[in-house]
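Reproducibility note. Readers wishing to regenerate the assembly model reported in the main text can use the exact inputs given here. Chain order matters: entities are listed in the order in which they were concatenated for prediction.
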Amino acid sequence: MAEIKGTVDMLGRSGLTPVDDAVKILMDRLSTIELSSETVSLEQSLDRILAKPVISPEDLPTAARSTMDGYAVRAADTFGASQTMPCYLNITGEVLMGEAPAGEVKKGCCHKIPTGGLLPDGANSVVMLEHTVPVDETMIEIVKGVGDGTNLIQRGEDIGIHARALDAGHLLRPQDLGLLAGIGVADVPVFKKLRVGIVSTGDEIVPYGKKPLPGQIRNINSITLSGMITRAGALPIDYGIVSDRMEIFFPAMEKAVLENDIVLFSGGSSVGVRDLGEQAVEALGPPGIFIHGVALKPGKPLLMGLSGTTPVFGLPGHPVSALVCFDLFVQPAIIKLSGLGREMEPPPQTLAAKLSRNINSAPGRKDVIRVRLKKNDGSWIASPVMGKSGSISTLSRAHGFFFIDEDSQGVSEDSTVEVFFYK
Amino acid sequence: MAEIKGTVDMLGRSGLTPVDDAVKILMDRLSTIELSSETVSLEQSLDRILAKPVISPEDLPTAARSTMDGYAVRAADTFGASQTMPCYLNITGEVLMGEAPAGEVKKGCCHKIPTGGLLPDGANSVVMLEHTVPVDETMIEIVKGVGDGTNLIQRGEDIGIHARALDAGHLLRPQDLGLLAGIGVADVPVFKKLRVGIVSTGDEIVPYGKKPLPGQIRNINSITLSGMITRAGALPIDYGIVSDRMEIFFPAMEKAVLENDIVLFSGGSSVGVRDLGEQAVEALGPPGIFIHGVALKPGKPLLMGLSGTTPVFGLPGHPVSALVCFDLFVQPAIIKLSGLGREMEPPPQTLAAKLSRNINSAPGRKDVIRVRLKKNDGSWIASPVMGKSGSISTLSRAHGFFFIDEDSQGVSEDSTVEVFFYK
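Running the prediction on these inputs yields the following structure tokens for the assembly.
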């Protein structure tokens, strides 16, 4: 795979790929992958992404409706009416909610109408209750005239028939479900939820419910990655802990690639297992590995490849490193392959905070510093949560993280940093 | 209920409650409600909120482990070692992943150790591979000495036995599940998910899958509110469309209050139905209504009450008004009753944007202006999405909203506004 820019190995034989370059290479690789879609019921469509535009099959509202409690009138009958010069109209009918209006509003007449009531024939406007004074059961005084179309929502004014209600790539929020309900769209074309397979390796890893023997450690990564996949809007498929013996690991990876849209394996941390991951991805067929090793701390040993059109990510075995790699590479990949339209992407949720102390960093790599946030006198203070990269409690204590970029040797106390939240 | 501050009616007999006061009154009412908890499996605990602190039942790691590939040594054997003055150690063993180390590291000796390997007896430090040069199969040269405890994570250094792993009120994020897995906590005490009942009224409302007859309108609010409840972390229970005839509406509300932690009804918009909602909440027993009508546009007719310890919200019938009231009142109520700890609450996700045009506002009420965001030359432009308050398409076109406060008569073009996102 010598022709692929960014392919390097972990054994120091060439440089590490800078994070931004690695993300660009990844996004470029993903851009040719075709997305699949399916139809789901409106009830099932929350937080899914539209695969096709929705064209409104009808006008909403289906006919002109009043937006006020009051009287449906012919506007011309009220022209010039005022407190000092009121006009008088005969009440000749009443519009009831949920029913078609009965009869026509004739010249000099009006019908009582509630908010949401359908405008009766003959009328072209509504006088709000507050601008009327009852004379008796059959007549009102109008103290403020209305123009044509006042206090109405016209047929199709919310959305017109054949208008584009929602674009492809739209993330279906609660209000979007409301719009689809309003125009009677009960079946919704959405992109399929991505299936993301998780294979954990490492002979020292045991299921978290099992008491570890000396030298063993409970499986932290599978449940953590599952949660991150769920929160990214995809479906985690956990293949459990797979032995790092080639004859067991290779077929497990092959099965995971067959059954999923994306595969993550979280490696044992010994050099032998690292090599095994590299060999396994190459064995899964072309195009193979395109990134191995990034200039990132923690997260350096990241491996990214493609088996056919299935992206495969080899994540570091250490939980903190694995999660940093998820945030920076896997999550953007899931979003890219989810079909989300550019304009639905919210700006990244960040917050400016003052750093509580100096942090040093080696130039030439991107450092991810986890922080805890605290409000102090109305401004935010970010305190670095230090700890070894295998230390899961540091992630649990952190509210978010900030970056120290490749060209920086550190950030000094009281500097302002841009903190990204762990959602 | 004359003794309750803020109780006003919709018929102009007294003033409307300012939004911030209404929120304070609501929060005050909710603060006495006791929360229920339950135990769920770790797999089921993502995004749930801890009801009790978790105390670690064991040390993590359970014994000192290497954080590097290298050699386990007695640090004193390496003191002063350098490129020019290396020291030499005999390789007398190897630590295997997942196994207890065999034998002891004696003076002048070392054992090969992988990252994550358990520190063998006798050793107190690890020299990383990069600082060694192999001499032959049985001996290495060490070119950089290490101090006691170098390249190790000590027993209990991630989290110690009996230490508080997580506090009550903690929102369980993926990394928190990882921490719980790491210390073998498979059963998690969490607050019960809140059940939020939704009752839709209005004789003009039909199920969205049904073709509306003249005067009828499809049910938009039930599915929209369901989605918002789900996104707020609670469980929506939809009671469908209930007739606004007292003998049907009252028992339906009674049932909903019995079966849920919070009840929303989304009223028909006629004056008669509004009164019915008020009567129904009073009929549900004390303490009854504490807010009726807020100085808010859209959203003025909001009603809030308590039946025993169950909050009941009467939302406006118009979808946009209903959703604004949900955002400002129901969502904070759900969060308050979910048990979420203060320090897990993320700062509100807002963004500063320039307003694309002048917007007028009546003083004395809070206006909620829905906007669409667009990036222009690196800064954000917020364009108001105008439309009637019944117009669901305006909400669907909006990325978020900003407030015009009570004391303002409007905001002029190019002013900077703080936009809250629709998640």
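We highlight two features of this model. The first helix of chain B runs from residue 19 to 30. The longest strand of chain B covers residues 366-376.
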